[in-house]
Amino acid sequence: MVGGDGGGTPTPRRGLPGPNEASRPVPSVAEAAPVAEASPLSIRRGLGSTPAPSPAVTPVGASSAPPAAPAETPSARRTRLRWRVPVLVGAAVIVLGIAAVLTAQWLRQLDWVDSFLLRYPGESRLPDNAPVGIPAWLGWQHFLNAFFLVLIVRSGLRVRGEPRPAVSWSPRWNPNRRISIWLWFHQSLDLLWLLNGVVYVVLLFVTGHWVRVVPTGWDVVPNAISAALQYVSLQWPTENGWVNYNSLQLLAYCFTVFVAAPLAIASGLRMSGLWPAKIGWLSRLVPIEAARRVHFPIMLYFVAFTTVHVLLVLSTGALRNLNHMYASIDAVNGIGLAVFVASVAVTVAAWVLARPLLLAGMARAFGTVSGR
C-alpha cells in the first residue's frame, strides 16, 4: 500500500528507484570508479579507506618489452676512448718491454754478442784535450732548461685545449692582432728558452765541452748499440759522467741540442706572429701545416727524453749524478740533491702560479690585455 505526504505525491518504496533516477544511464563496469577496501588499521585510526592505484593498462597491439637503451652520444664515446686508449697503450708498452728485456738477456748469452760487448764497451774515446768535469754554467743550464721546458709544455697544452680564449693580448706595435694570454706566455717562454740555448751553445764551443756531446768518430755507432743492449738487458753500462758520457747518451744529447731544439724553434716561429708573412716564397717553402705536424711530436719527444733522463740519473747513483749536474763536484753527498729539490720546488711553484690573472699582469707590460 502506498502512503501520501499530504500533497498527494506518491512516495516510492524504499529500495526502488525514483522517477528521476530511473532514467539515468547505468555506468558500465569499465567506467565505474574503483573502490578499495579500507584496511582494518585505517578504520581503527579513523583514517578512512585509501584508494588503491589503478593497474596500468597496456594498449592493444603495444609491445610489453622493456624500452631500448639510448644510443651512445659522441661525447660519451670520446670519454670512453679517452680512458681506454692510454690503458691499452700502457699494457702494450709493458708487454713489449718485458719481451725486449728477455730477448736482450738471451742475446747476451751468445758468444758473438759477448765478443761484441768486449770490443765496444759502450763509450767512445775522447780526444786527449777534452775537458774533464762539469762547469757551474752547465749546472745552471740544467735548471733553466728544465724550468722553461716544463712551463712551455704546460702553456702549449693549454693553447691546444682552449678553443676560445678568455683573456687576450695585443702587442703595442700591432693592436689589431689578438692572441690568447696562454699563447703569449708560451711564446714568451720560447724566446727565453731560445736565449738560454744560444748561451749554452756558445759556451759549449768556447770551453771545448762540445766534444762531450758531438761524435768525433764512427765507433760511436757500435758503442751506442752496445750501451743500448746493456740498458735493455738490465745490466747497465758503467756510468762516469764526470769524465765521459756513454755513446748512447752522447747521441741523445747531440740529437736533442742540434736537431730537436732547432726543429721546435723553427716550427714554433712559423706558427707565431713573428713569422715574416710578407715574404711569400719563404712561407711557401715552410708551409704552416708542416710546422704544425712537427711541433707537437717534438714536444712529445722532449717529454720522453726528460722522463728517461731523470729516471737514469736517479737510478745510476743519484747523489753523485746530482752533484755533477747541480753542484759541479765529483762527490757523493747531499749538496746536489738539495739544489735539485729546491729547483723542483721553484718549478712547481711557477706551474701553480701560472694563472691568467697573474699572466695578465705581466703581459700588460708588453701590450694590451682584454677579456671577453
What does this protein structure show overall?
The chain is mainly α. It has a domain of 252 residues: Fumarate Reductase Cytochrome B subunit, CATH 1.20.950. It is built from 12 helices and 3 strands; from the N terminus they run ααααββααααααααβ. A 3-stranded antiparallel sheet has the order 2-1-3. Strand 1 and strand 2 form a beta hairpin. It is globular.
Strand content: under 5%
Task: Kindly report the CATH topology of the domain at 120-371.
Answer: Fumarate Reductase Cytochrome B subunit
Q: Provide the structure class.
A: mainly alpha
The H/E string reads HHHHEEHHHHHHHHE
Estimated radius of gyration: 40 Å
Shape: globular
* Stretches with pLDDT under 50, minimum 5 residues: 1-23, 27-50
The CATH first-level class of the domain at 120-371 comes to Mainly Alpha
Summary?
The chain is mainly alpha-helical. It contains twelve helices and three strands; from the N terminus they run ααααββααααααααβ. Strands 2-1-3 form a three-stranded antiparallel β-sheet.
What keyword list fits this structure?
56% helix, 3-stranded antiparallel β-sheet, mainly alpha, 372 residues, disordered N terminus
Fold topology:
Elements: H1 40-45, H2 74-107, H3 111-119, H4 136-160, E1 167-171, E2 179-180, H5 181-206, H6 220-232, H7 247-271, H8 280-285, H9 288-315, H10 318-327, H11 335-353, H12 356-363, E3 367-371
Helix pairs in contact: 4-5, 4-10, 4-11, 5-12, 6-7, 7-9, 10-11
